[in-house]
Design goal:
Layout: E1 16-20, H1 49-61, E2 66-70, H2 80-88, E3 95-100, H3 105-114, E4 119-123, H4 129-136, H5 141-153, E5 157-164, H6 173-179, E6 186-191, H7 208-218, E7 223-224, E8 234-237, E9 244-248, E10 261-264, E11 269-271, E12 280-281, H8 282-287, H9 292-304, H10 310-314, H11 325-328
Parallel strand pairs: 1-2, 1-10, 2-3, 3-4, 4-5, 5-6, 6-9
Antiparallel strand pairs: 7-8, 8-9, 10-11, 11-12
Helix pairs in contact: 1-2
Length: about 325
């Protein structure tokens, strides 16, 4: 395995790119954007798939070996499947994973399997259709739920991402864990983050400790699992259950010390931390005529200046409005 050349000032090597292919989504989840939506980027401002491929090639050349495709909802952008086919053949790229809301999984399942993409994260915040509708502002629960089991039955590795919040879905925490009893699912509970496109942070106080305490009150026997060094989740398993669950301290940011991720938005904004301001706009740099060497130097310089953690990165941002998660790329 090639050692990444993307090294920050604290000695952390980055080998994982989160690539957003669109800021558009067919849901309107309350923690991601307002009900009326956001001002989506004009089409001309989005990176073309060819530009995304060229930039991905640059990243891989510097040591990125895993790319997660995010959005918005990745599958709402026309041309995504041909792009993924081309990306999957990129020499040096070991893994492509996808985060989706699950509404279009069945439609694209065969293509994903053919190109070797077998890991998919589905954002699902409730197992109750009424609560699902309140959270997403869409009536698509049955489609998503059936699609999850369609993926499982076809051999995909499926993780369910559930954002936990007071008065939204606390009563779903235990049912999610029970879903792992007979199914090889990994459920991850996430702290709510302040990226909903408004001035209101939306954080409801359910941090990772409170989530765990709630679970521990229901289950007296919870085994902690050994996680990968760069894992953002602390993972657990109920003895005898087929699947597992994890808790991601996305707001508390306890995993910053081992973070190996870098983000590229659909409009070309490069972020070395989700909480920090863009380090550069690669779209503008590419379209100004920069060559490969110049692009590589931009990437190396941006990573080298990465802050110690999300709090230090956040201190650099002066935005009063919390950017929509669909624009940030998840």
């Amino acid at each position: 395995m090639k050692e990444s050349l993307l090294v920050d000032q604290h000695g952390r090597r980055l080998n994982y790119l989160r690539l957003s292919v669109t800021d558009r989504c067919n849901f309107r989840c309350y923690y991601c954007m307002p009900e009326e939506g956001i001002n989506f980027a004009p089409r001309k401002d989005l990176l073309s798939f060819e530009e995304m491929y060229q930039l991905s090639s640059q990243f891989v050349g510097l040591g990125i070996d895993k790319i997660r495709i995010t959005g918005g909802e990745p599958f709402v952008r026309n041309g995504i499947i041909p792009f993924l086919y081309k990306l999957s053949k990129l020499n040096g790229l070991q893994e492509i994973t996808i985060t989706s809301n699950g509404t279009l999984s069945t439609k694209n399942q065969a293509s994903l399997k053919e190109m070797g993409i077998r890991k998919i994260n589905i954002s699902l915040d409730s197992l109750d259709a009424t609560r699902f509708h309140r959270i997403t502002r869409r009536d698509s629960f049955d489609t998503v739920y059936k699609g999850i089991f369609g993926l499982l039955n076809d051999g995909f590795e499926v993780k369910l991402n559930c954002v936990v919040a007071e008065n939204k879905n606390i009563e779903d925490i235990v049912p999610f864990i029970e879903l792992t009893k007979d199914h090889p699912l990994s459920v991850r509970f996430l702290e709510e983050m302040p990226f909903n496109g408004s001035e209101v942070s939306g954080y409801s106080g359910w941090d990772y400790k409170r989530i765990y305490e709630h679970i521990n009150q229901q289950y007296t026997d919870v085994n902690r699992l050994i996680s990968e060094d760069n894992s953002t989740s602390v993972n657990y398993k109920i003895p005898g259950y087929t699947g597992s669950f994890g808790i991601i301290p996305s707001f508390s940011r306890t995993f910053c010390g081992t973070c190996n991720r870098i983000r590229l938005s659909a409009t070309g904004e490069l972020r070395t931390c989700l909480y920090g301001p863009p380090a550069a706009n690669l779209r503008d740099i590419m379209r100004s005529g920069a060559n490969s060497e110049e692009l590589q130097q931009v990437l190396l310089n941006a990573v080298a200046k990465r802050e110690k953690d999300g709090y230090a990165a956040e201190a650099l941002s002066h935005e009063s409005v919390h950017t929509s998660m669909s624009a940030l790329g998840g």
